[in-house]
Specification:
Order of helices and strands: EHEHHEHEHEHEEHEEHEHEHEHHH
Number of strands: 12
Shape: globular
Structural class: alpha/beta
Largest sheet: 6 strands, parallel
Helix content: 25-40%
CATH architecture of the largest domain: 3-Layer(aba) Sandwich
Strand content: 15-25%
Number of domains: 2
Oligomer: single chain
Number of helices: 13
Distance between the termini: 17 Å
């Protein structure tokens, strides 16, 4: 009889994040889930160069699908970290008459292909889908005919034991505005807003180039962009040294930007965030400053307000830390998912 739980992800994890107590790295949500369900982690192997990359891709999704499929006879449950894996794995499992259940995070259910696949796959193998956006949950329920108890919203997560301001020597005078991340960030609007003031702005974004938005644009002198990857301790130090954090976003219907925002909040920082449709579950907090998408004037006014009010930064940052500890700790996230898998 199958009895094993498998946790399936596309990217190859760093070895350090698979330690029970990682050194100088945040705990890995996927590995915490694996430990709680006494399961095994499966992931896509590194893809060789050449033709294999053209047909398989480089993100490890297809190898992860087949790694899971090859272990199906041992499995009672699969948990996948995204619909890109789940919606490829489930048809293969159906063809074999597999009797277990698939649980999966679903990040962007508004995508037409994802919705088509969710409808075609139906509900027979669905142990539960999880979303970190109620908008995404509602789209799935409305468009696919799934039962209400098959799609569950939960807050996204951050390791508050790693992203803890107490671990970084305090700065007497935080001297810059910080922004980081890549997915659907609106750094062009941030750069435009920064051009109206003298505040130093540091952007950590390896995928951002001004030419993507305006080939004739010139960055303001007070804006610094780094396109290199940071270690986790270095990223934590960047948060710690900032007076506050800006999360500028394009208006998309899923929770793009949530990881960076929760990291900043865990570090006790005040946050200015674009009030996008997909982030409504997070941006309603009184301890945040919200600005409309693409509004450089509103963003500049919010930056000026916080830059001139260190006490507001301290107060909002403390409230943000408290909220994350109460609602978005990685342990809570892992426990919710593991409990659903174990009690199905």
């Amino acid at each position: 009889m199958p009895h094993r739980n498998f946790v399936v992800m596309g990217k190859t994890p760093s070895p350090g994040r698979l330690l029970e107590h990682p050194v100088d790295e945040p705990r890995f949500d996927v590995d915490l889930i694996r430990r709680r369900v006494s399961g095994e982690l499966l992931y896509g192997a590194d893809i060789p160069s050449g033709l294999a990359k053209r047909f398989v891709g480089t993100d490890g999704v297809i190898p992860a699908v087949f790694a899971a499929f090859n272990r199906r006879r041992e499995a009672s449950n699969f948990f996948t970290t995204g619909e890109d894996i789940a919606f490829r794995l489930m048809p293969l499992l159906m063809l074999t008459g597999w009797k277990g259940r698939v649980f999966s995070m679903v990040h962007a259910s508004q995508d037409g292909n994802s919705l088509k696949m969710a409808k075609l796959l139906g509900r027979r193998l669905v142990g539960g889908y999880f979303t970190v956006s109620t908008m995404q949950r509602d789209i799935l329920l409305r468009e696919t005919g799934l039962d209400a108890d098959q799609v569950e919203f939960l807050y996204s997560n951050v390791d508050t034991a790693f992203y803890d301001p107490a671990l970084v020597p305090p700065s007497d005078a935080p001297d810059y505005v910080f922004a980081c991340g890549q997915e659907n960030r609106d750094y062009a609007t941030l750069a435009q807003a920064a051009g109206g003031g003298s505040w130093p702005v540091r952007i950590q974004a390896s995928g951002f180039f001004v030419a993507e938005d305006d080939p004739n644009a010139v960055l303001p002198e007070n804006v610094e962009i780094s396109r290199t990857r940071l270690s986790f301790p270095d990223l934590r130090a960047r948060y710690a040294g900032a007076r506050f954090v800006v999360v500028p976003l394009r208006d998309v219907p899923y929770a793009a930007g949530v990881t960076g925002m929760l990291e900043a909040m865990a570090m006790g920082k005040a946050v200015i965030v674009t009030d996008t449709a997909g982030m409504k579950d997070y941006t309603g907090l009184d301890s945040l400053i919200r600005v409309p998408p693409g509004d450089a004037q509103a963003l500049a006014a919010a930056i000026r307000r916080l830059w001139d009010d260190p006490e507001a930064c301290r107060r909002m940052g403390a409230a943000n830390r408290d909220w994350v500890v109460a609602n978005a700790r990685v342990e809570l996230y892992a426990d919710r998912i593991a409990s659903r898998i174990l009690n199905q």
